[in-house]
Amino acid sequence: MAEDAEDVRPVAAELGAPAAAREPGPPAVAIFDLDGTLVVGQTQVLLVKFLRRARVVSRTFVAGTALWFIAYKLKLVRVTQASREKGAGILAGLTVEEVDALMDRFADEVMVPRLHPAAASALAEHRAEGDLVVVVSAALDPVVRALCRRLDVTEYAAATCEVVEGRYTGRLSGPIPYRQEKARLAAQFIASSGADPSDCWAYADHDTDLELLRSVGHPVAVNPRPGLRAEAERQGWPILLSTDLIRGGSKNG
């Protein structure tokens, strides 16, 4: 089933049984990916461009990032811990207060205008139904935190950036919510809530999120990349489409 971005009638209810029909018990958990799912685009690329406009990073850094993503799309390079660390390096030396202020601007000026209408509508419906909404993303935690505040989402997991003596070091700390780790963290949120996974939802756009989607009773593909779209069609999963939005390019989180 496809949902057009122009029509944002109760999305979650149309994709399955409404919350009111559930047996009494813990609220369901709705897991949302970020890049390409809630936000149209790749947040690291958008962040680099934003920080260039804010004169935080150099043209050389922007050019290097662009070349890496071109190589990634051509499958010449793969996402590695080293490439993740390089992405976190964009914040090196900035204070917590400086990053918070920049991320507030980034969320308001860049991410909120690029929210996927149908996915954002589904998120709002889950909240209205009393479901536990969780954002799980490999994006940098200051980025995810800033957007979650604007969506009234209190639970999230992201790539944790190391902070020492009030400044970002440019290094990551702990596991990154990507592929199996994203699914593991989602399962952890579901288990801690006491919800039955068969009552829970997951929204994602990429085949790297297949393990996450298969772990719940209500998987939803959002503007899916070809690999996920093919699997969603095979499995009969709902598909949310927004043909009028700019496609988000490569996915690495």
Describe this structure in words.
With 253 residues, the chain is α/β, with parallel strands linked by helices. It has a single domain (2-240), classed as Rossmann fold. It is built from 10 helices and 9 strands. It has helices at 11-15, 43-53, 59-73, 81-88, 96-111, 117-128, 141-150, 180-193, 210-214, 226-235; strands spanning 2-3, 29-32, 132-140, 155-159, 161-164, 167-172, 201-204, 218-222, 239-240. Strands 1-9-8-7-2-3-4 form a 7-stranded parallel sheet. A two-stranded antiparallel sheet has the order 5-6. Strand 5 (161-164) and strand 6 form a beta hairpin. Helix 2 (43-53) packs antiparallel against helix 3 (59-73) and helix 2 crosses helix 5. It starts with a strand and ends in a 13-residue tail after the last strand. The model is unreliable at 1-10 and 244-252 (pLDDT under 50).
CA gyration radius, whole angstroms = 18 Å
* The CATH architecture: 3-Layer(aba) Sandwich
Query: According to CATH, what is the class?
Result: Alpha Beta
Based on secondary structure, the structural category is alpha/beta
Count of discrete structural domains: 1
Number of helices: 10
**pLDDT averaged residue by residue:** 84
User: What is the string of SSEs from the N terminus onward?
Assistant: EHEHHHHHEHEEEHEHEHE
The count of strands amounts to: 9
What would the CATH topology be? Rossmann fold
State the strand order across the main sheet. 1-9-8-7-2-3-4
Determine the strand fraction and express it as a percent band.
15-25%
Q: Which bin fits the share of residues in helices?
A: 40-55%
The largest pleated sheet is described as: 7 strands, parallel
Name the overall outline.
globular
Question: Mind telling me the CATH superfamily name?
Answer: HAD superfamily/HAD-like
Low-pLDDT ranges: 1-10, 244-252
